[in-house]
Amino acid sequence: MSAGVPWDAARAQEIISAHLGLEGPALPILHAVKKEFGYVPEAAVPLIADALNVSRAEMHGVVTFYHEFNREPHGRHVLKICRAEACQSLGAEKLARDFLAQLKIEWGQTTPDGALTVEPIYCLGLCAHSPSALYDDEPMGWVDAERLNEIAAEAQNK
Ligand code: FES
C-alpha cells in the first residue's frame, strides 16, 4: 500500500488550486489529496472548505460521508470487510466484531505495530461469496475467522 508523502499544506494548496476549475471539484480534490498523502488530513479540510467557499462543517460532512477518505494514515496493509446486507446475513458483522476485538482496534483503526488497518466496505459485488473482504485490493469471498487470522499474521510479517 502507498503511504503517501508527509503532510504539506503548501502542496495541498497546489492540489486544491489545480482542481478548482472542475465542475464539482470537491471529490476530485479529496481523491487527489488522498493520493498524495495517503489519507485526508484534518488540516486539509479547512483549506478545501475555504477554496470552495463552503463551511468547514459542510466539508467535514463530505469527508466523513465517504468511507474511502480515511482521515488517518493507513497501516502497511488494509483489510476492508463488507458490512452490506448479504454479508451481514451470513455473519460478517460478528466475524468482523470478533476480529476487531482480537486486534484491539475499532473500525478504521490500525494495529499498534502499523501492520493492518481494518475498514468497512459496503458491497463488493461478491454477495454470492459472502462474507466478503478486500485485502490490499485483492477481493476474497467466503472469509472466515481462520482466513482473517491468516491475513493478520501475513500483514505482520510483510
Ligand atoms: S453484500 Fe457483501 S459483497 Fe455484496
Overview of this structure, please?
The protein has 158 residues and is of the alpha+beta class. 46% of the residues lie in helices and 11% in strands. The protein folds into 2 domains: 9-65, no CATH class; 77-157, Glutaredoxin (3-Layer(aba) Sandwich), CATH 3.40.30. Strands 2-1-3-4 form a 4-stranded mixed sheet. It contains 7 helices and 4 strands, in the order H-H-H-H-E-H-H-E-E-E-H. A hairpin with a 2-residue loop joins strand 3 and strand 4. Helix 1 (9-19) runs parallel beside helix 3 (44-52) and helix 3 (44-52) crosses helix 4 (56-65). It has helices spanning 9-19, 26-37, 44-52, 56-65, 85-89, 92-103, 145-157, and strands spanning 77-82, 116-121, 133-135, 138-140. FE2/S2 (inorganic) cluster (FES) binds next to helix 5.
